[in-house]
Amino acid sequence: MADPAPPANEPAIEADPERTTADITRKLSIASSLCIRISTDRSRPEDTRTDVSYVLPNDEAELDRLDVTHQKLKILLQDKLLRCPVRNPGRVLDVGTGTGIWAIEYGDDHPDTEILGTDLSPTQPSWVPPNVKFEVDDCEEPWTFREKFDVIHARYLATAIADWPKLVSQAFQFTKPGGYSEFQDYDLVYYSEDGTLTDDRELSSNTMQTTPNGMIVAIQKWITIFLQAARDFGRDPCPGPRLAGLMRDAGFQNVEEEKYKIPIGPWPKDKHLGRIFQRRRSGYMWLTDIPENRRGVEPCPDRRRPRGLHATAVYASPRMEK
Predict the structure, then answer these.
(1) H-type alpha helices, the chain
(2) Which of 228, 219, 195 minimizes the C-alpha distance to 304?
(3) What is the DSSP secondary structure assignment for residue 182, as one 8-state letter?
């Protein structure tokens, strides 16, 4: 499969000539026998509920990954928690709140706002701002909130949602007139702006162990398998490009879409983008950060062949009441 084309009219990210492949590779921990494998590790706990399906665990390693991803997304969005132009909302819903870090930070910044975070697992801390609370809830079930919200926020739900039109439709139904719903999510297909990243090369164990290009082939193979597994499981791994259309179909007006490029590796000359990679070593692979079974494969970010993926932030208002 060839690289997806970069969005039209978007300039390519400039690579930093000072960051050589050798310098970068020395800083990576590559397994001596690099391979693609299916994890058989059953020691990581899955979600505690038996009537829902979710592809990732909810242990400390996963919670740590989510917090790192939160910080990276803030860097990408210029340290903003929301892109919609809302000011001092009364009620905010954070769908799929995870560790609750977004809701807690937003609550700290807006002490007069009531914030509710929902998730399948009660993994949020108990010590939170007084205006923040959390509930165990499945966002794919019918919503039963008694009141609507000024802002509904949901992000990085890639591989987690079976019915995106239903989710967006419920957000429309529970957003107050004049309020906003905002979705921030990914297209997890890895791409290269120079067209060099393809999956049509042979996956040789010997090649992967001895050459940077071989490691890149392994990563491309890994992401291809992962994306197909998510689709086979009925969970879309690439909802980002669909979000604007889904919101329009649900009835939202004034849909605003913002697209962002996420570099995989420390190669960007742009220091702001470089911070995304350098935020923490465990974030080398922006799946958005592979869970702890990433110990088998990490990328070799060749400066001559910049690679990345895309994120999309979309916000819109429902129709105004007559």
Answers:
(1) 21-26, 60-76, 101-109, 164-173, 205-210, 212-232, 243-250, 271-278
(2) 195
(3) E
Q: Which residues of the chain have pLDDT under 50?
A: 1-6, 8, 20-44, 47-51, 201-211, 279-305, 321-322
Q: Which tens digits make up the pLDDT trace of 5-33? A: 445 456 666 666 555 444 433 333 332 23
Q: Rounded CA gap, 135 and 187, in Å?
A: 28
Is the alpha carbon torsion for 257, 261, 262, 264 positive or negative? positive
Give CA 243 to chain center in angstroms.
14
For residues 135 and 146, give the distance between their C-alpha atoms in angstroms, rounded to a whole number: 14
What is the full DSSP assignment across 27-54?
TS---SS----------S---S-SSS--
- In angstroms, rounded to a whole number, what is the distance separating the alpha carbons of residues 106 and 171? 19
Q: Which of 267, 315, 261, 237 is nearest to 75 (CA)?
A: 261
Question: Is the whole-model pTM more than 0.90?
Answer: no
Alpha helices in 85-160 (DSSP H): 101-109
